[in-house]
Specification:
CATH topology of the largest domain: Rossmann fold
Strand content: 15-25%
CATH class of the largest domain: Alpha Beta
Shape: globular
Strand order of the largest sheet: 3-2-1-4-5-6-12
Number of strands: 18
Number of helices: 19
CATH superfamily of the largest domain: Glycogen Phosphorylase B
């Protein structure tokens, strides 16, 4: 009897597990990683939440509508789709995915846009009954949108920002922007990205009659009738952009008043590029809050000393950190210039440059030309980035463009004061003088002054770090972020 009872319970448990698996919504996250940067860490955070089950954050609520229980139980089964170069199949992101044993599939690319990936991805979506696709980055957006529409499943994109690093990337990003209106939902990591999306979605060509202006935004134009008149006869209409009127060229034939001229009509392309604001959800990135450690505690001092010695740094040195990809849009060159000006005034200063990228050789040459080779340490890619933050005195961000940078949130969560250019979503995230110091982009003198101010005033540094950590705890914790992602998924799947 006991054996029969045991077998019955085992069969019942298997049936329940099978039923639960059938009720789960299958989600595929799609990304083409270059390294283990901000966007890649966002993907891993979403996957980690799914691996934990999601019930804690999602609440397991049910819809009163019949047939919606499966969608709203909060149980999503997620896997990862990764585009990698066929000649270089391994990268830091894939190594981390494998180490965490996350379910994933690799789509090898022979060239920048390997159209064979379309067939591979479409077949994977159908064979594995994927019910929702979540894309990250321009390559994943373009290929993922085509395949999701062909498979007739909803598709969500997270816009982490645009880099425009070279002409080819800019063209790919242009194609990505053209596809944005066709996504089921769009997650923007900052208000600035949302505003930029809407503005760029309303760009219209000025036309052949006034080429020197290039492109002007539709919302900046005011139609003004009878601007050009000769002898009481209307020859055309003018365009007013902000403060100045730009009359159209002479020699335009007379036009009926009740008819829009061709160059001012809304083109089909403009209509296609217009994005419905209701599709856009602004969702700033989030981080796990490290365990509270009392400032100047023995534990903190011991850890800090150990990490610094590992990288050949004196325990009492002042360390300014840069964390990010070594590329033109991240602009670490401005920080090196500032370090060269701060060093004579603060002899114990060091700068740690953490990350890899195409600009590394140029930056190493710049450090040599500035005479600060001994003051700058290029640490390369660091898998366990939290150890770096524990050893920093200040984090500096000199990017030309940003959304909601993970490096900023991570530093704030560790109570590290931040000096940053006021770009992208950073200006809305940091309050100058309260939880960080903001600098006008490209103002080297202001950047130098802000770094000196924090490094020479330990009390200010401690207050900035404490306020920053508290802000992250209240506004950028993972639980609230997860809940909002779940709400986006639910809307896409037909829930309320």
């Amino acid at each position: 009897m006991k054996n029969n009872g045991f077998e019955f319970n085992q069969e019942r448990q298997q049936e329940q597990q099978q039923k639960q698996a059938e009720q789960q919504v299958r989600v595929l996250q799609l990304i083409a990683p270059n390294t283990l940067g901000g966007a890649e860490r966002v993907v891993l955070s979403i996957q980690e939440w799914v691996e934990r089950g999601g019930e804690r954050a999602l609440g397991g609520e049910k819809s009163l509508r019949e047939g919606r229980e499966r969608v709203l139980t909060g149980k999503f089964a997620s896997s990862l789709g990764v585009f990698t170069w066929a000649k270089k199949p391994q990268n830091a992101f894939l190594r981390e995915v494998s180490a965490r044993r996350y379910p994933h599939v690799v789509f090898p690319m022979r060239f920048a846009f390997d159209w064979a990936n379309l067939i591979q991805l479409f077949r994977y979506l159908k064979a594995n009954q994927i019910q929702l696709l979540h894309t990250h980055g321009y390559r994943s957006d373009i290929l993922g949108l085509i395949c999701a529409r062909a498979a007739r499943i909803p598709v969500v994109t997270t816009l982490h920002g645009w880099t425009g690093t070279d002409w080819m990337v800019r063209r790919y990003e242009d194609v990505q922007r053209l596809g944005l209106p066709f996504f089921t939902a769009i997650i923007a990591v900052s208000e600035e990205i949302k505003d930029r999306m809407i503005r760029q979605g309303r760009l219209i060509p000025q036309g052949g009659l006034a080429r020197q202006g290039g492109l002007i935004r539709e919302e900046d134009l005011i139609q003004q009738e009878d601007l050009i008149q000769q002898g009481g006869q209307t020859w055309g209409r003018g365009l007013v952009r902000q403060r100045e009127a730009v009359p159209l060229p002479q020699g335009i034939p007379a036009l009926p008043r009740n008819r829009e001229p061709l160059w001012q009509r809304e083109s089909i392309l403009v209509r296609l590029r217009r994005i419905d604001p209701a599709k856009i959800t602004v969702l700033q990135n989030a981080v796990d809050i490290p365990q509270e450690i009392a400032p100047n505690s023995l534990v903190q001092a011991a850890q800090r000393r150990q990490i610094r010695l590992q990288f050949g740094c004196e325990p009492d040195a002042l360390v300014v950190g840069f964390v990010g990809r070594l590329s033109t849009e991240k602009n670490p060159a401005d920080l090196l210039e500032a370090i060269s000006l701060v060093t004579p005034r603060i002899p114990g200063l060091l700068c740690w440059v953490v990350g890899e990228g195409p600009e590394r050789s140029a930056l190493e040459n710049q450090a040599r030309d500035l005479g600060i080779t001994r003051k700058v340490r290029f640490l390369g890619f660091q898998m366990h980035i939290s150890r770096i933050y524990q050893a920093l005195d200040v984090l500096a961000i000199t990017s030309r463009t940003e959304g909601t940078p993970m490096a900023l949130l991570e530093a704030m969560s560790w109570g590290i004061p931040v000096v940053s250019y006021r770009v992208g979503g950073i200006g809305a995230l940091l309050e100058h003088g309260l939880d960080g110091l903001l600098v006008n982009p490209g103002d080297t003198a202001e950047l130098v002054g802000s770094l000196e101010r924090v490094l020479s005033d330990p009390g200010l540094a401690q207050e900035l770090g404490k306020s920053a950590r508290e802000k992250v705890r209240k506004k950028f914790a993972v639980d609230g972020w997860i809940q909002k992602i779940r709400e986006v998924y639910t809307r896409c799947l037909g829930g309320t």
